[in-house]
Design brief:
By secondary structure, the chain is an alpha+beta fold. Helix content is 13%, strand content 29%. Strand 16 and strand 17 form a beta hairpin.
């Protein structure tokens, strides 16, 4: 990912692995001596689970997407980290990964079965007055400050109709309707964009997350989308480790169970016969033994 500083406190920095310390002390990976930071304010640490924000105990003024962080938080592309007044945006390494070529027309209306499937594709608000609310894309959703907007934000900085989210068969589209100078996708400034599951969209400081199970991740193709399906099941199947999953790769269950061992089956039958004979003898002779 690419770390950018919107207010110009430091040049952009690429970070994909290892550990990167940030603070006011000389020798830090990113040294910001004039911004009221602690000598070692935070660290970014990459491991097999992803990139983490690590905060030393007692360090104040650390926020992730406007929410305070005391010890640690898992980061994603598109996040904004604030260290006191220093803003850091985590963007795509390659801005060209975001496709700006969107369909010329709005999507066609969905059928009833398609609407049920499409209800799984939602835009979720991550900050501001709409925090926690989700908006389905069964029909296009307009963002703006006008009273008739589907996602209405009472913010004078927004246009009355700022942007529109649309579901097109196997992809979600962000279409600019007004001035999108302050719209970003995963930290990259855009007007129009084709979105992918997990993308973070910021419209003039208001942050949204696209949740779209079953749609392809960025760079992937061939997954049928919610709008294209004629039935109601469109989510990709989830691979659940089963009794035949190999320990070496739990994400790839075997196609078929291992073949049965005929010898083991006969031993099981023989053991059952011996057990049955023993129980029969016990029932027949135990009364006589008790009388003697």
């Amino acid at each position: 990912m690419q770390l950018t500083f919107p207010n110009g406190e430091h040049p952009g920095v690429a970070f994909d692995h290892g550990e990167l310390s940030i603070g006011s002390r000389q020798g830090q990976g990113i040294c910001l001596p004039d911004h009221s930071l602690a000598p070692h304010h935070v660290s970014l640490v990459s491991d097999r689970r992803g990139v983490w924000l690590r905060v030393p105990a007692g360090t104040p003024g650390v926020h992730l997407n406007a929410r305070p962080v005391k010890r640690a938080a898992l980061l994603h592309v598109g996040d904004q980290v604030c260290l006191e007044k220093v803003q850091i945006v985590l963007g795509e390494n390659d801005a060209g990964l975001i496709d700006r070529k969107i369909p010329a027309a709005e999507p066609a209306s969905l059928g009833e079965a398609q609407r049920v499937s499409a209800s799984r594709v939602v835009i979720r608000a991550l900050s501001g007055a709409l925090y926690g609310r989700s908006f389905t894309l069964t029909e296009p959703k307009v963002v703006g400050r006008a009273p008739d907007c589907d996602i209405r934000i009472d913010d004078p900085a927004l246009a009355e109709r700022q942007a529109q989210f649309e579901l097109h068969t196997d992809k979600v589209v962000l279409r600019a309707l007004g001035d999108s100078e302050f719209t970003t996708v995963n930290g990259v400034p855009v007007r129009d964009a084709v979105l992918s599951p997990g993308d973070q969209i910021v419209i003039d400081g208001h942050r949204f997350l696209l949740e779209a199970p079953g749609l392809p991740a960025r760079g992937q193709a061939g997954v049928r989308g919610a709008g294209a399906m004629a039935h109601t099941q469109t989510m990709k199947s989830v691979k659940v480790p089963g009794p035949y999953t190999t320990a070496a790769n739990p994400d790839e269950p075997a196609d078929t169970p291992p073949p049965a061992d005929p010898g083991a089956l006969w031993w099981l039958i023989a053991a059952a016969a011996v057990l049955a004979a023993a129980m029969t003898a016990l029932l027949v002779y135990s009364p006589g033994l008790g009388a003697a």
